[in-house]
Amino acid sequence: MRDIPIDEVDHLDRAVVAIRTDYPPGHRIPPHRHRRAQFLYSATGSMRVETADGTWTIPTRRAVLVPPETGHQVFTTTVSTRSLYIEPKAVPWFPRRCQVVEVSALLRELLNEAVDVPELYSPRGRDAAVVGLILHEIRRSAPVRLDLPLPAHERLRALCESFLDRPDIHDPLSAWASRLHVSERTVNRIFTTETGMGFARWRQRACVLHSLSLLSDGLPIAGIAASLGYESPAAFSTMFTRLIGTSPKDYRAASAL
């Protein structure tokens, strides 16, 4: 199925409903929730999924697992998705909060097949076998730490969300404190209490996660570094490698496989 809202087909008596959807650049899917669990795969482009307690960056050829009844909103680049909406009883092993996962070459091909199976595919035969194999492959998908916690503090969260749209590695803590009319120490304390990391570490992680989408879009590494405020591509690469475990160049090459 293609470009069909899940609400129109949620009633189908099948464990999995597969839908392909294409989104324009800069699109926002407002806060919503699904009765079913969701496997949201970015075939092209990238996305950011936001819930009450954090955000998850989904680069090209990665996916995010969204548990049933989890309120979330989605921010996209020019992206083509493959969404699987899964009856909760079919995936009792699903995580309790969102989780980004790797997507194997086999699973990518299965997802492309799944969006072309009939709405009421036969519970026996090839289509059911494809769906069953997909669930096995999802369960064995390796998790990837591409999440960023968000504070519950209402005004600080608003600043965080604004920062995520235009991150800057040198955005000063003093400016945040001034906007909130509190001390820098207070801002840092709230960050540590509500996200588990101090302001500087949160800012670094936000910048690196933002860069994943830019890498997926093919932007030059030097341009990405400059857009985030790094003095040089080397400084950006050092921070990227420290947080992601591989260089931006190697990450991009691996993502293209």
Produce the secondary structure layout.
Blueprint: E1 16-23, E2 27-32, E3 37-44, E4 47-51, E5 54-58, E6 62-66, E7 72-76, E8 79-86, E9 99-102, H1 105-114, H2 126-139, E10 143-144, E11 147-149, H3 154-165, H4 173-180, H5 184-195, H6 199-216, H7 221-227, H8 233-244, H9 248-255
Antiparallel strand pairs: 1-8, 2-7, 3-6, 3-8, 4-5, 4-7, 5-11, 6-9, 9-10
Helix pairs in contact: 1-2, 4-5, 7-8
Could you characterize the architecture of this molecule?
With 257 residues, the chain is an alpha+beta fold. The protein folds into two domains: 6-140, Jelly Rolls, CATH 2.60.120.810; 154-254, Orthogonal Bundle (Arc Repressor Mutant, subunit A). It is built from nine helices and eleven strands. The chain has helices spanning 105-114, 126-139, 154-165, 173-180, 184-195, 199-216, 221-227, 233-244, 248-255, and strands at residues 16-23, 27-32, 37-44, 47-51, 54-58, 62-66, 72-76, 79-86, 99-102, 143-144, 147-149. The strands form two sheets. The chain has a six-stranded antiparallel beta sheet, with helices on one face. Helix 1 packs across helix 2 (126-139) and helix 7 (221-227) packs across helix 8 (233-244). The chain is globular. The two termini are 26 Å apart. The mean pLDDT is 95.
Summarize the structure.
The protein has 257 residues and is an alpha+beta fold. It is 39% helix and 23% strand. Strands 1-8-3-6-9-10 form a six-stranded antiparallel beta sheet, covered by helices on one side.
Provide the spatial order of strands within the biggest beta sheet: 1-8-3-6-9-10
Largest sheet: 6 strands, antiparallel
Find the CATH topology of the largest domain. Answer: Jelly Rolls
**CATH architectural grouping of the largest domain:** Sandwich
Low-confidence stretches: none
Q: Structural class from helices and strands?
A: alpha+beta
* Beta-strand proportion: 15-25%
- What spatial form do the alpha-carbon principal axes imply? globular
Distance between the termini: 26 Å
Strand/helix succession: EEEEEEEEEHHEEHHHHHHH
Quickly count the domains: 2
Number of strands: 11
CATH class of the largest domain: Mainly Beta
Using only C-alpha atoms, the radius of gyration works out to: 19 Å
Quick check: average pLDDT? 95
